[in-house]
Design brief:
The protein is α/β, with parallel strands linked by helices. It is built from 15 helices and 12 strands. The strands form 2 sheets. The chain has a 6-stranded parallel beta sheet.
Length: about 350
C-alpha cells in the first residue's frame, strides 16, 4: 500500500505499558514521517503524550468521568460522554489502526474507529481473544521477550526497520519550573535519591515491605549523606507520610505531581529506588539511574528499558509468577536490606552522573 496519511495507535494504560509502547510508535513515526499519528489513551499519562512531537493528536477515553456519572445515577451524562468520545474517535478515517493493548476493550475501540487496516498481537500476546478482531496479527517465537521488543513487532510489521529508536521525552518549561520551586523551598541539593515503595492498586503483591524501605532510607541518609524524597501518587499520601515518620524525618514527601511534573522531578534525581511500577519506567525514560527491586514479575518482560539500572531479585523456582494471593512472598521477603543497600552503593559507583 502507499504511505499512510492517518495512523491510530491504541494503548490505553497503564503508565509503564504506555511508556514501553513509545519506542515502537517513534519507529512508526520515523518510517512514515508525513503521517498524522493519533494515540488513544486513558488516564493521566495522556498529559505526557500530548507534549511529544512524535504524536499529533491524543484522544482520551474518559473512563473515570463515565464511571462517575453512572455511579452518581446520572446515566444521561454518562451516555453523553460515551457518544462524544465515539464521535471524536470516528472523526478521521485511519489508514492503519494499531492496537498495542490487546484486550477486548481496545479491540472494540479499534472496530469503532473508522479504518482500512486493523492489526494487533496474535494469540500468544493478546488477551480475552482480542486477536480475533484484527485483520492482521503479529507474534514471535517466545512469549518472554521484553515489552519494548514485543511492541516493536507491530512497528516492524508496518515496515519499520533498524534498531529500536532512542527516545527523548520532553515537557514544557513550566513543569520544570514547578519542580525547581519545590527543590528550592525544600532546600534540596544533590545528591538527591527518590524512594517509591508503591505500585498500582492491582500490583500490591509486587511491593517490598515498608519496613525495609524505612531501613534503606536511614542507610542512604546516614551512610551516603544523600537527601531522600518519598514519591507518592493518588491514594498513597497517608502511607508515604507514615514512611516519612518511620524514617525519623530523614526523608521528605514529594510535592503533588501529575505525570509530566513527575517526569521533570525524576530528571533531577541522582538515583531512583523502587519496585516494578509505572514510575520505575518513567524514571528510565527520564534518564534517572535506577535500583529496581523485583519480586514475582518477570524481569525479562518488565525490566526498566535502561542501561543505567541495577536489578535486585531472587532466582526462585516459583518466580516469576502471577499469584497475587501468594502467602509466603519469598521472592520479596528473602531480599534483605543489606543486599539492596550494597546494590545501591554499586549503582552509585557506576552512576554516569556525578554524585
Amino acid at each position: 500500500m502507499s504511505n499512510p496519511h492517518n495512523i491510530l495507535i491504541i494503548r490505553l494504560s497503564s503508565l509503564g505499558d504506555v511508556l514501553m509502547s513509545i519506542p515502537a510508535v517513534v519507529a512508526i513515526r520515523n518510517t512514515f514521517s508525513e503521517a498524522h499519528i493519533s494515540w488513544l489513551v486513558e488516564g493521566s499519562v495522556g498529559q505526557l503524550l500530548s507534549h511529544q512531537e512524535f504524536i499529533d493528536n491524543v484522544i482520551e477515553f474518559p473512563r473515570h468521568s463515565i464511571a462517575r456519572a453512572f455511579k452518581k445515577s446520572d446515566p444521561i451524562r454518562g451516555i453523553r460522554e460515551i457518544k462524544t468520545f465515539i464521535k471524536k474517535l470516528r472523526e478521521i478515517n485511519y489508514d492503519i489502526i494499531a492496537d498495542f493493548h490487546g484486550i477486548i476493550k481496545s479491540a472494540i475501540f479499534s472496530m469503532l474507529a473508522r479504518g482500512d487496516r486493523r492489526l494487533g498481537f496474535g494469540k500468544m500476546y493478546a488477551k480475552e481473544k482480542s486477536h480475533l478482531f484484527y485483520g492482521e496479527t503479529v507474534t514471535a517465537n517466545s512469549k518472554r521477550i521484553h515489552k519494548v521488543e514485543r511492541n516493536m513487532l507491530i512497528a516492524r510489521h508496518l515496515g519499520a526497520n533498524g534498531d529500536i529508536p532512542q527516545v527523548s521525552l520532553t515537557v514544557p518549561a513550566h513543569f520544570d519550573t514547578y519542580i525547581d520551586d519545590f527543590f528550592s523551598k525544600a532546600g534540596l541539593t544533590s545528591p538527591v535519591f527518590a524512594v517509591n515503595p508503591f505500585s498500582s492498586s492491582q500490583g500490591i503483591y509486587k511491593r517490598w515491605d515498608l519496613k525495609q524501605y524505612e531501613e534503606i532510607i536511614k542507610k542512604i541518609y546516614d551512610t551516603i549523606g544523600a537527601q531522600v524524597i518519598i514519591l507518592w501518587g493518588p491514594g498513597e499520601k497517608r502511607e508515604a507520610e507514615h514512611l516519612r515518620k518511620m524514617g525519623g524525618d530523614r526523608a521528605i514527601l514529594s510535592c503533588p505531581t501529575n505525570v509530566p511534573q513527575l517526569f521533570s522531578l525524576l530528571k533531577r534525581i541522582d538515583m531512583y529506588i523502587g519496585g516494578d511500577s509505572g514510575v520505575m519506567h518513567l524514571a528510565a525514560f527520564a534518564g534517572c539511574p535506577i535500583l529496581a527491586i523485583f519480586g514475582p514479575t518477570d524481569v525479562n518482560i518488565n525490566a526498566p528499558y535502561s542501561k543505567n539500572c541495577t536489578i535486585v531479585r531472587k532466582d526462585l523456582l516459583c518466580s516469576p509468577c502471577k499469584n497475587k494471593n501468594c502467602q509466603s512472598r519469598k521472592c520479596l521477603t528473602d531480599i534483605t536490606v543489606d543486599e539492596v543497600f550494597e546494590a545501591i552503593l554499586a549503582q552509585k559507583t557506576e552512576n554516569r552522573r556525578q554524585i
